[in-house]
Automatic annotation (TrEMBL):
Species, as recorded: Enhygromyxa salina
Gene3D superfamilies (UniProt xref): 2.40.10.170, CarD-like, C-terminal domain
Classification via InterPro entries: CarD-like/TRCF_RID, CarD-like/TRCF_RID_sf, CarD-like_C, CarD-like_regulator, CarD_C
Pfam families named among the record's database cross-references: CarD_C (PF21095), CarD_TRCF_RID (PF02559)
Domain CarD-like/TRCF RNAP-interacting stretches: 6-117
Protein name: CarD-like transcriptional regulator
PANTHER family: RNA POLYMERASE-BINDING TRANSCRIPTION FACTOR CARD (PTHR38447:SF1), TRANSCRIPTION FACTOR YDEB-RELATED (PTHR38447)
C-alpha cells in the first residue's frame, strides 16, 4: 500500500478517474468529537476541487505520480498487442473497464486504453466505449506529461502512434 499521508501543499498527486491534481490545502475538521484531516485537491485541466480524507486517500486510490520504472512498465504493456480477443458483451466490457479506471492505477488505465484501441481496429466502438477510450487516453496523457515534463501533444502523439495500423 502506498503511503498517502505524506502529501504536502504544493505536491502533485493522481486521483482516480480525475487524473493529475495539485494538493492545494490541508484541513482538520472536528466531526462527532473526532479530529479528521483532509486533503484539498484541485484537478489540473478541469479545476475540479476534491476533498479527500487523509486516512482514506490510499483506499480511494490517490497516489503519487508514476516514476520512470512504472512508466516503462506501462509502455511495455501498451506494446503487447498479443492479447486474447474480448468476447464479452459491450455492457459487461464497459463495466469491467470502468472498474479499472476507478482504481486510478496507471497500468489498469493503460490496459483499458490498449484494449479499446485494439478493439477499435477490429470493429466500430459503441458511444460509451469511445468515451471510455477518450477518458483513458486523457488520464494517461495528463499523468505522463506531468511526470515526464513533456508537452501533452507529444505524449498523445506517442500513445496514438502505438496503435496506428
Amino acid at each position: 500500500m502506498i503511503d498517502t499521508e505524506n502529501f504536502e501543499i504544493g505536491m502533485t498527486a493522481v486521483y482516480p478517474a480525475h487524473g493529475v491534481a495539485d494538493v492545494v490545502g490541508l484541513e482538520t475538521k472536528h466531526v462527532g468529537g473526532q479530529a479528521l484531516r483532509f486533503y484539498h485537491l484541485q484537478v489540473r485541466g478541469s479545476g475540479l476541487k476534491i476533498i479527500v480524507p487523509i486516512d482514506k486517500a490510499g483506499e480511494n486510490g490517490m497516489r503519487p505520480l508514476a516514476g520512470p520504472d512504472e512508466i516503462d512498465k506501462m509502455f511495455e504493456l501498451l506494446r503487447d498487442h498479443d492479447v486474447p480477443a474480448d468476447r464479452q458483451t459491450w455492457n459487461r466490457r464497459y463495466r469491467n473497464f470502468m472498474e479499472k479506471i476507478r482504481t486510478g492505477s496507471l497500468h489498469e488505465v493503460a490496459e483499458v486504453y490498449r484494449d479499446l484501441s485494439l478493439l477499435r481496429s477490429q470493429k466500430t466502438l459503441s458511444h460509451g466505449e469511445r468515451e471510455m477510450l477518450r477518458t483513458a487516453r486523457d488520464l494517461l496523457v495528463g499523468e505522463l506529461a506531468v511526470a515526464r515534463e513533456t508537452p501533452e501533444d507529444e505524449v498523445a502523439e506517442q500513445l496514438d502512434s502505438m496503435f496506428k495500423n
